[in-house]
Amino acid sequence: MISDRLKRTILSELDLDEFDIRDEMLAGEVPGWDSLSHARIISAVETEYGTRFKTLELLKLRNVGDLQALVDHRTTK
Amino acid sequence: MTFTSLSYFLFLPLVYLIFVFTQHRFRWLVLLAASYGFYATFNAPQLLIALAFVSCFSYICALQLAKAVEESRRKRTLQLGATVCLLALLSMKLLPRLPQSFATAIPHVNLMTSIAVSYFTFQAISYLADVYLETRAPERHLGYHALALAFFPKLLQGPIERAGDILPQLRRHYEFNYGAMRSGMLLFTLGLYKKVVLADRLAVYADVVYDNQRDSIGLPLVIGTYAYALQIYFDFSGYTDMARGTARMFGIELTENFKSPYLANSIADFWQRWHISFSRWILDYIFRPLQLAWRGLGQAGTALALIVTFLLCGIWHGTTWGFITWGLLHGLYLATSIYYRPHQTNLYKWLRIDRSKWLKAWQILITFNLVSFAWIFFRSQSMTSAWYAITNVWRLSESRLDVFHGTGKRGAELVLISLFLFSWAELDPTLPRILHTMFDGRLRWLYYYVCIMLILLCGVFGTGEFIYGRF
Questions:
Q1: How close A53 gets to chain B, by Cα (Å)?
Q2: Which tens digits make up the pLDDT trace of B165-216?
Q3: Which one of B155, B245, B317, B353 has the lowest number of neighbouring Cβ atoms within 10 Å?
Q4: Which residues of A touch B341 (CB under 8 A)?
């Protein structure tokens, strides 16, 4: 389940008012989230949660649910 | 042997018959032997050795990757595997540059070609990366792994398949499907038409201009440039159609490599439609790691990653300034779009033209011309020639079309009619639906007959070389 905080961070970066983001959703299914904006969104998430992900962790992400799991892992450490 | 060789029309049915009459558990061996046999027709044993070496080395590396637990060891294994594959590629690319005396030292051996090496090397690196990132378990059957790299329909020019896409299909039990066989043959015929009737005839116009650029001023340079843009598209997409059509006959669906690239509304959109398997490869294995590693630089990090990625893309095509400039241009097109795209989007929304068909048509026109401009560097024989083309293409009032005398008027009419029909099919789904209905009936035999007659009568049969077979 994608948290409201993560959802707000992503939508804010993409300048979207409302969009239903689900666990199994791929980045490309979110309007405006493409390969050119990907790093910007990741940076926004890192700033929001006060963390920095490893490049390898990010390359292994398959969907938004994986990003949520990574954030949860970092914030509960 | 290439897809346009007469011998291929004997080779393919023979392989298919042997394949069908072989037990399922040995079919991989039939296809593997056929693939190596197909590759052997280039009389370049060094390429066969490279293919076998890359297959075995990547197989072993992947198994070691899966076994290793420690991250540093996994990383080193991946780096070793990728480096060795790239060294194999580099050595095969450098061989043709050796002195002529060495190149011809061994009779009946062709040291001047490196065809296919890029494609199976990139696929091997992709496979290792996927095992490292744990998106795919390693393939434990060496035969299937080797076949995934060597499968003859995609060997020479791709598509660059992902292990996760092709391996399950190769392992699947083949059952004859009349619809798949028919559509495979149709796709192959369409690809052959694109290559020998369209691409090789457009090449006549492009070559007249680009082989002797200083003989042309103004309009001929425009025509030659657009002709080359269309030539390279029909050449490469024609090959891909023949590859996909052949593979479909064996029950394998290869990646669609082109999706109307000249209808792209931006350069970013173009690269999602052109040579899709390659652009996905550079996106996943070069651009994305760089972009993420440099994300601390903000937008500048993404811009830099794009420029480096496309510079490498240009260098892969060749180490001439023309190819490097072509790659750099695309990198710059994309890098600058990161900065202006958000403002452009807001402007269109404010002007309320963001959903306008006229805007879309304008964007398609601009994108096509930006891509064609970059092709000037790709095709020109030197930077001096490219500079001549760029500075003289505007001198339209001094144009002389007599450079095209002797190129064949009948061919031009056929090319224009074909371009009209292809464009119509791309823009309006009604035509493909009508044709699809026809193909289900007896009229499809008329279509086969017309296609084959056009291919035989109007096809340009030369060396049969495909443009992207050189890279």
A1: 10
A2: 999 999 999 999 888 998 899 899 889 988 888 888 888 888 888 888 788 8
A3: B353
A4: 36
The vertex-B387 CA angle with B385 and B390, nearest 5°, equals: 110
**Contact between A41 and A23 (Cβ < 8 Å):** no
CATH number of the domain that residue A34 is part of: 1.10.1200.10
Which two structure tokens, joined as six digits, stand for B255?
């990646």
pLDDT digits (tens, 9 = 90+) for B272-323: 999 999 999 999 999 999 999 999 998 999 999 999 999 999 998 888 899 9
Chain centroid, CA B360 distance in Å: 26
* C-alpha to C-alpha distance for B274 and B237, rounded to whole angstroms: 9
Distance CA B48, CA B117 (A): 10
- CA angle at B392 for the pair B387 and B398, rounded to the nearest 5°: 165
Rounded to the nearest integer, the mean pLDDT of chain B is 87
Q: Is A36 on the interface with B (CB under 8 A)?
A: yes
CA distances for A50 relative to A14, A39, B58, angstroms: 20, 16, 39
DSSP 8-class letter at B138: P
For residue B81, tell me if it sits in a domain: yes
H-type alpha helices, chain A: 4-13, 38-49, 55-59, 64-75
Q: Is residue B196 part of a domain?
A: yes
Of B292, B298, B299, the CB nearest to A58: B292
Same domain, B358 and B307: yes
- Contact of A43 with chain B, judged by CB distance below 8 Å, is answered with yes
pTM of the prediction? 0.89
- Spatial distance between the Cα atoms of B202 and B320, rounded to a whole number of angstroms: 24
- If asked whether residues B246 and B191 sit together in one domain, one would say yes
